[in-house]
Each structure stands twice: as structure tokens, then as C-alpha cells.
Amino acid sequence: MAVQINENYLLLKSSYIFAEIARRVEKYQNENPDANVIRMGIGDVTKPLPNAVVKEFHKAVDEMGQDSTFRGYGPEQGYEFLIEEIIKNDYLSRGIELDNGEVFISDGAKCDTGNIQEIFGLDNIIAVTDPVYPVYVESNIMAGRGGKMGEDGKYEGLVYLPCTEENNFVPELPETPVDLIYLCFPNNPTGTALTKEQMAKWVNYARENKAIILFDAAYESYIQEDNIPHSIYEIEGAKEVAIEFRSFSKNAGFTGTRCAYTVVPKGIMGYDKDGNHYPLNPLWNRRQTTKFNGVSYPVQMAAKAVYFEEGQKEIKENIDYYMKNAAIIRDSMKKLGLNVYGGVNSPYIWVKTPNNMDSWEFFDLLLNEVNVVGTPGVGFGPSGEGYFRITAFNTLENTKKAMEMISKLSF
Ligand code: MLT
């Protein structure tokens, strides 16, 4: 017999959304070598690493070159020196207690949100918001949980929770039972944030239905308003039902450096077919120790510096800088008469396309006419059709230029 492939891969769209955008932009750039294309598509940062981070990074690299301080394999779960800073600064400061064994350092929230499904059974019903960060959906399709994609762009085995203008991009509780719920707030791609009350509805649902929330908080540092929880564990009972994903990518510029972490509380349980309960923490630990050898020592030292006073100050300046871009984008789009969402507690601005243009049509128009790249909303799911995502992560100069160029278009 010839080697068999994992046929679930054939159920995926032909390419990952950001790979498809990169392909189209590269083609355009090759055909128009003089065009100065401004990229506001993938949420990649432009500000360099903070000085505090670079200093620790260098020091740690030097240590790796000395007999007396060289380190080989580190703990798969991450070094205690970083885990302790995370717990103290990101959780204890908000009244949340965690122990060191509940935090797992990794090389990205993308990997962790993609890998977490491995510790859950194949028969679980998965709920995702629509639109959604594609990794949650596609990692489940690869594993065989979603079935085929229908004409409507939805996988038949998944439960979609539409987030539209009508519900202010806040998902309603599912009408049919679900087991695993992926939530990302502040949201990628709509930029919406949930209040404490809105988040509590989900925690209560999960507690009542023995479901689990996979909570992606990669954008928490962009929260500006009060009454928006930075962690799902600010909600009572969440430690029984939620796994939280955080990242240094968007707050400290680690998109290329790679460092993130996942919190799996020790009290959170899953069940076997006979209804016996099992803690999930040892399962994730087992998965990580088998398949992952940890993040490099210099990168973890660099991440630790994020929590230094100097690091915190620099990070705040960078976030303020991106949020100023977000305000410029929001204002410019509003002046054009478009419906604009997000960009208040989030680096993403979600825009309704003009004249009922579809998302890819609007993408092509902006690329071809004014050399600005965004992300077509439909790339995040069927309810994203007719929307377009713009990121605030470019430079102030490029953001202003892109907005000037778009403003010249008449819709
Ligand atoms: C995005 O643009 O949605 C993000 O950059 C994707 C990611 O963080 O992997």
C-alpha cells in the first residue's frame, strides 16, 4: 500500500489567510517594483524590542558562551525566573493566585491555541466565533473534528457564533450544546472587548455545561477602558473552566523573537467516556514534555525584562504609539462615511466595506489603487464577508500616508 496522507488536510482552504495575502502582495510588488506598498494586513509589529529587553537578551547570550554559565536543555515548561514574574505582575496584581505549575512558557500563542486541542477527545463539539482567528478552526479540521466545508463557508461539524453589527460583535450563547469554546478578547479580528458581565455569562455557561473555554488574551495590553477584564480569571469560577493564552508578541514586539505562555489551572477538569474526571494540567504537561523542549534561555531572559520598570515604561510607550495609529485609522475611515468598529481596546480596526463590496474586492481595490494592504474580513469566516481589517501596527508615518491615500478614493 502507498503512503496515506492525513486526508483532513484536504478539507482545509488551499492556503492560510496570511500566506494568501503575502502571495498576492508579492505578485503585485513583482509586477510593480516601484510601488511603495504599505502593509496593514498581518498583525505584525514595527517597533523594535524595548532596550530593557535587548540588554537582558545580550547578557544571556554572553552567558551561553561561557563554560561557567552555559545552559543546555531547560525545563520544558519554562524557567521559574520567568514564570514567577508572570504570576506576580500579570495575575497577583489583579488578585489572581496561580502556582508555578499552572503556567507553561512557549514559543507562541499561535502554537499553543493550535496544539491545545490535542488533549481533548475527537467527539467534542467545538464552538468558534464568526469571524475568528483561523488557527482555532483549522487546527481542529486537521485533527478531524470539523467535517467538510459547506457552500456557506462553514464547516459542518463546528458551531459558529456569529459576531455582527446586529449584536455589536458580542457572541450569543450557543443554542445547541458545545464542549469547547474558543474566545479571543480583545477580539482578533473585530477589535471588540467584553465587559466583566459579558465574560461572566460565558464562564457560567461553561460551569453549568461542563464545557471548557479556551481564552486567547493575546491583545490584553491594548485594553484602555475600565470594566474590561485583562484575564478571564478575573471572573469568579473561571479557574474551573478556562485555559488562558497570553503572548509577548503584541505587547513587547516578540513576533519574531517568539515567547508566550499558557495558563492551565490545576482545578480544571475533563471527562472520560464513563464520566470520570481528570485534571487537564497534567495532560498539557505530558503533551509539552513529549513534543516541546522549551523556549531558549536568552529569549526567556529577554521576556523577563518586559516586567522591569524600564521595560514596562517602554512597552507602555509603544502601545500608546500604536493606539494613536488606531485613532487615526478610525477617524479617517469615519470621515469617509464608513462604519468603523474596534481600535479602542485593540490594535485592530474592523471596517464595513463601502457599497456592499465584498472583502476581497475591497482588498484588491486598496492594493491596486493606493498600495495599501489590509486583511479581507471573509478570511476570518463567513460573517466577516463585507468587512475589512486594518492593523494599527505600522509606523505613524505610514499610517498617516495610507489614510491619506485611501481618503483620495471616492466610493
Ligand atoms: C493576525 O494578523 O491576525 C495575527 O498577526 C496573527 C498571529 O498573531 O498569528
Textual characterization of the structure:
This protein is α/β, with parallel strands linked by helices and 411 residues long. It folds into two domains: 7-48 and 310-406, Aspartate Aminotransferase, domain 1, CATH 3.90.1150; 54-308, Type I PLP-dependent aspartate aminotransferase-like (Major domain) (Aspartate Aminotransferase, domain 2). The protein is built from twelve helices and 15 strands. The chain has helices at 17-31, 51-64, 80-91, 109-115, 134-143, 196-209, 249-252, 281-291, 297-304, 309-335, 359-370, 396-407; strands at 38-39, 103-106, 126-130, 159-162, 180-184, 212-216, 242-247, 260-263, 269-271, 277-279, 340-342, 348-352, 372-373, 375-376, 387-391. Strands 2-8-7-6-5-3-4 form a seven-stranded mixed sheet, with helices on both faces. The longest helix has 27 residues, at 309-335. The radius of gyration is 21 Å and the shape is globular. The mean pLDDT is 97. The site of D-malate has 6 residues, from loops.
Per CATH, the architecture of the largest domain is 3-Layer(aba) Sandwich
Helix/strand class: alpha/beta
Query: Could you say how many structural domains there are in total?
Result: 2
Are any ligands bound, and if so which? Answer: D-malate
> How does the overall form come out from the CA principal axes?
globular
Which H/E pattern describes the elements? HEHHEHEHEEHEEHEEEHHHEEHEEEH
